[in-house]
Design goal:
single chain; alpha+beta; two-stranded antiparallel ribbon
Length: about 375
């Protein structure tokens, strides 16, 4: 999410994930000692785990060589249909010959941090994170600062000055629905109607998942709340549960395609991905309650494959990686610069939504306050 703009602003455009392997949680007792790459020296003499730019490896060729020597990369919480991560993972693996181990694709942002804590020191720990704002900003001590080669192309509002975290892509909060199973959704208030009984799902727990947090914020805005007052959103979900309309199921492509979750509150790019597979699946971004957000990319400071982690970052922010994001229906963080220099995929850009009007993007302070309110009140409201 944009961490420094005003809460409400006009955004003329915000371009609104098959894992290669399953990450094992632990190793058998008879397994050989795990490989430790954290102390590997770069050309400049610093360890790969301490490298803050490709220059520490003697340039990109040195970084690529070091990453190939490690041979693997551990990612987590990257569904193949989320922001085109399936194609992104495959492209990275094919380009560099590095095996990508993808763990828990449907995990939450908090699950990513938990996995890093629980697997610290193991070869199975996550190398990189892709996080929602609330969880990302609450765990900055977990990250290793790194500035990609195109760091200066990234707007100041979308990065930590040292590269401890950098926004990678963004979109709008939306409501997706199966028009063959429910009436068209035209507003948030529609979801309280009897026609939606047992049919409305939220993507995750808003105390742990960025998509769910932003979903509650969108609902709050529709009920007279704001980024400073998320309480009306929690109250709406309490009413939704009392009406029997709230479905306590974490939606996935499988639940959508099977008809288990006919209405889903989620990012527009995730909902839109389902439209390609389910023709009756429609997506609406409530125009009067638009909420936008960016996700945060960071390197685990205890990454078992520190060079590969840094090469992954370089790939994601390269023209190739950014255009792969665009083809997933999200706004790449370098979109404006790439559009200006003619490197942005024009076909992908033209298919992405335009919102003409005010868009709410919470500041870090607002996110922190809203997160505390959710921690104190969400469970009591919805169980």
């Amino acid at each position: 999410m944009n961490i420094s703009r005003n809460t409400t602003q006009v955004m003329s455009r915000i371009l609104a994930g098959a894992a290669v392997g399953l990450l094992a949680v632990g190793a058998a007792a008879c397994a050989p000692p795990e490989k430790d790459n954290s102390g590997a020296q770069t050309e400049s003499g610093v360890s790969a785990a301490e490298a803050t730019s490709a220059a520490d490896f003697g340039g990109m060729d040195g970084l690529v060589e070091a990453a190939k020597a490690e041979g693997e990369l551990n990612v987590i919480a990257l569904p193949p249909d989320w922001a085109n991560y399936g194609e992104i993972i495959q492209a990275f693996s094919d380009k560099y010959g590095i095996k990508v181990n993808s763990a828990q694709p449907d995990a939450s942002s908090q699950d990513e941090i938990n996995a890093a804590d629980q697997q610290k020191g193991r070869s199975t720990a996550p190398d990189v994170f892709d996080l929602g704002q609330a969880v990302a900003l609450a765990n900055t001590s977990q990250y290793a600062p790194y500035r990609v080669e195109v760091f200066d192309d990234i707007p100041v509002a979308y990065k930590d000055p040292d590269g401890t975290w950098v926004n990678d892509y963004g979109g709008y909060m939306s409501i997706g629905f199966d028009s063959s199973k429910v009436p068209p959704v035209t507003s948030v208030d529609d979801l309280l109607k009897p026609e939606y009984q047992g049919k409305v799902a939220l993507n995750g727990d808003p105390t742990q998942a960025g998509a769910a947090f932003s979903g509650v914020l969108m609902v709050a805005l529709s009920q007279g709340g704001s980024a400073d007052d998320i309480a009306p959103g929690v109250e709406f979900f309490r009413k939704l549960k009392e009406a029997g309309n709230f479905l306590p199921v974490d939606p996935t492509p499988a639940t959508i395609e099977s008809g288990q979750t006919p209405v889903v509150i989620d990012w527009n790019y995730t909902n839109s991905a389902e439209s390609k597979k389910l023709p009756s699946w429609q997506v609406v971004v409530p125009p009067d309650n638009a909420v936008a957000g960016y996700y945060y990319q960071a390197i685990n400071k205890d990454a078992p494959h520190p060079a590969a982690a840094r090469l992954w970052q370089e790939f994601l922010y390269s023209d190739e990686g950014q255009n792969l994001f665009a083809r997933g229906g999200v706004r790449p963080v370098r979109a404006d610069v790439m559009a200006a220099d003619g490197t942005l995929d024009k076909e992908a850009a033209e298919t992405l939504p335009i919102i003409d009007g005010p868009v709410t993007v919470p500041t870090p302070q607002q996110t922190e306050a809203a997160s505390k309110y959710l921690a104190d009140n969400w469970a009591a409201a919805v169980g």
